[in-house]
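User: Quick sanity check before I run a bigger batch. Here is a single chain. Can you write out its predicted 3D structure?
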Amino acid sequence: MSKIISIKAIQVLDSRGLPTVACRITLDNLLTAGVMVPSGASTGAKEAIELRDGLDAYLGKGVLKAVDNINKIISPVLIGQDPSEQENIDNQLIELDGTEDKSNLGANAILAVSLAICRVAAKNLDKSLHSYFADIYKNITGNSVKPNLPMPMLNILNGGEHADNNIDIQEFMIIPRGAKNFNEAMRWSSEIYWNLKTILKSKNLSTAVGDEGGFAPNLQSNEEAIKLILQSIEKSNLEPGKDVYLALDCAASEFYKDGKYHLTGEGRSLDSKDFADYLENLVNNYPIISIEDGMDENDFDGWKILTKKIGSKCQLVGDDLFVTNKKIFQEGIDAGLANAILIKFNQIGSITETIETMDLANMNNYKSIISHRSGETEDTTIADLAVGLGSGQIKTGAPCRSDRVAKYNRLLWIEDECPDLKIG
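Assistant: Done. Predicted structure follows.
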């Protein structure tokens, strides 16, 4: 039985050039593994707390407090422990923090250690990380999952908090659902992306990209964005609604104020019913099969209206609504809100809690989507997590920027190494 002999954290930079936490764990057999944690821009109010320094350096965004918490508080507690005891270690971290929102040690500190434990334990057992995730899912929940390759949801046109433009909806995604394997899904998606760039150029629109690699032009409406993507699908000799579908992340909490949804780019303000009608109209007229955060995170009446209107014909995903929190998610299930959950492990702060939330989704027939954050790194853990937990779906940005493409490349390697795995 191998033991932990070293836990070391440092401050590194994410895809925005802002600090984030990196952690490396070494065992007594000298095996070592490290991770980097992501950071969000469009964040739910109920997410676990990402600890920042608030000092002059890095405009107050430094994470040296979180780094010190790992090196000086967490490390002494875990030295000498068996890394294969994931649930036990995660529970120790949660107890050591002692707060509901992980504001003491920081969710970024706790998650960095939790993920590094997974990586070094998998390495110690000579297992792929995705296989190890499937194992610990069973250990933690008592239930089994069937690993598979996730269907990618690629954010190829950005708005909202992810871009400096006038589009209100945050993400316009393509889902290459007709692809026979992951390799084909990525080829189609890359071709669509590049054809979208060609179309934007032909219209003298900006081809600068947002945080997640999608293009960020100024447009007249959200509907214009959808039409441009449909053109790019057709230009790629693919059929919308057969080969490739669309998905939206409204991030509605970002434009909800005083009981109204303010579509500033379109000069409109809508109440919950009218905004639900607006989204229903888009679903009825375009091949949209998934909408994330279609209502504000606290507009439960709006969520009920939206779920009743289009829940039977569209995946309705709770991100800010559920924040990967088992307790909050259970309340949403009981209230009949949405029918799917976005899984972001830095919203909750540990792998054990992430797995418990995914298991709750599986037990209640809610779909799960493993997701990146807008502030990412070259770390590819979520790719293995999506495969090992059999989520069937992953969001990790456009086929652009190494912080996004790293995840897709990892999935291409997994498909090559595990040809029996099916997609979706």
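The chain has two domains: 4-126, 151-417.

User: Great, the batch can go ahead then.
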